[in-house]
Amino acid sequence: MTGLGVPAADVARSEQGKLPAAKAFTLAERDKHMSEQKISFMAQLDQWTEDNVFAPLLSTDVEGNPEELSQETLDQVKQAIRTKVLDSYHNGQAAAPGVKSQPGSFRPRRQFSK
Hints:
Layout: H1 41-57, H2 71-95
Helix pairs in contact: 1-2
């Protein structure tokens, strides 16, 4: 018996028998759902393109017939693309100020004439 009135055999102990055994490790709530992974930039761009370019350009009426494209629709699509490109440009400028793209370490093999 332990001092707590519980038989010694019923208390979970570590290998050394000095400390209680560790409780089972559980993931934090934010780590439980794999479906909440970040989407790649290209996948986000594809989704944006479908929502903001293709959907307006390929719209159909209730009967499934293609609708006539209006100048307003074309202007909205053009503006959405321009805004997306400008946002991307600004994000690139803010991401690494002063860091210039460096050429890779690729060097073509030296070719000797025979």
